[in-house]
Amino acid sequence: MFKSVLFWKIATLLGLILLMMIPKEMLLNVISERSGYRQSVIDKVSDSTSRSQKILGPLIVVPYSEWVESEVDGKKKRERINRSRYILPEVMTVSGAPDVDVRRLGIYKAQVYQGALNFNAQFDATALDDLIHDGVTIGRPSLVVALSDSRGIQQISPLTMGSQKINFEPGAFLGRTANGVHAELSLAQLQQKKFDISFTLTLTGTNSLSVVPIGRSSELTLQSNWPHPNFVGEFLPLQRKVDEKGFRAHWSTNWLANNININFASDDPHVDFNALPAFSTSLIEPVDHYQLTERAIKYAILFIGLTFFSFFLFESLTSLRVHPIQYLLVGAALVLFYLMLLAFSEHLGFTLAYTIASLSCSLLIAIYLSAVLGGWLRGGLFAGGLLLLYGVLFGLLQSEDNALLLGAGLLFIILAAVMVLTRRLDWYQVANPQLLTGQKSSETNTDKTVDKPVAVGGSNTDAFRLWD
């Protein structure tokens, strides 16, 4: 087998394919680096304004202390324990219309939103009835609104509670992971049992906005001028409308569905603010060209392998030969496609960049192969086949859900074409080193010559010569 010229030719082709994987990995590193640059720009914009916002509240925090008896080493010990009672709203509705502004830094950009959110809630303070007894001292209650980044608070109206107006003060009482504002209440106000509150929060943030549905029944209505929302998180909107002018979405849920009240059931809750489920929308770019380019590069080995195998098949069926250097140059043009795609997509968008890169590289390969293969028709056919592959790849990238189905169908068609073209080819004859080089048998000293094989298409033994 190791004396077979065909074996060494196939081994050389596989080696060339593996060699082309080096620039492919380098391109993946470039994509990671450029994507990191973009994220650093988003971080810079977030640092100068505010980050993604997650809102928890409104809820009422009632601090209290009570005497507790315990037994230590057989001795009774009496000490005062400080706790907090959390009253969640029975009904909570939030509505707003944040406008999105694109901030640019170089070629990169980030989405910054700003707008007013209107909060309305209804509370039932009967949860405090069990605290009204001797030994319990109730402190000053507060209505709390917590945010992930309080720098985004542009303005907040006074809390409206019946006919009363109460100003908000800095600080939230929900642990170190949350900051925000609070409005001090009185026990007399809570003794109303059921009461309504409202306020308006003007907020700035970047990339995403989330509201924790803390009420027994919670609703959120958002509308914005951003036409590319991504509805993420634990709850999808029940109603949504997205067009070129923006979007409108409505969420609704309750404690039976989300069990959020369980997190505040005890008077000493350890609430992970960031882990609470929320109504969420992400203001994203319509196409992440870095992700699409990375997915395209994963098909590079298929493109290079199919092109090299086409050359090999062309050599086997005709009298022309393609040198390894020529294989390598065509492979370099195929890899250059991905670099051009990455570079142009940062400025022109993915679709236009893909069109320019595929046409440019196909034209370059067509001009080069027209000389290598001895005619514009052959070079044009190879370039046309390459453009067809680029078109299929674009369809795979745009239809991620059907990528496996389309890829399997493409491979089946390619395999069927190869089997049809080579169904009459004598591979033993192709692999014969004497026939491949056109030499006589070294074991024969007579004047008898070996008949030259006839290749498919009627050519002579040059059809099977390798790179000599």
UniProtKB/TrEMBL annotation:
Pfam families: CreD (PF06123). One of its GO terms (cellular component) is plasma membrane. Keywords: Membrane, Transmembrane, Transmembrane helix. The keyword Chaperone does not apply. The chain crosses the membrane at residues 296-314, 326-344, 350-369, 376-397, 403-422. It comes from the Bacteria. The keyword Transmembrane helix applies. This is Cell envelope integrity protein CreD. The lineage of its organism: Bacteria, Pseudomonadati, Pseudomonadota, Gammaproteobacteria, Enterobacterales. The gene is creD.
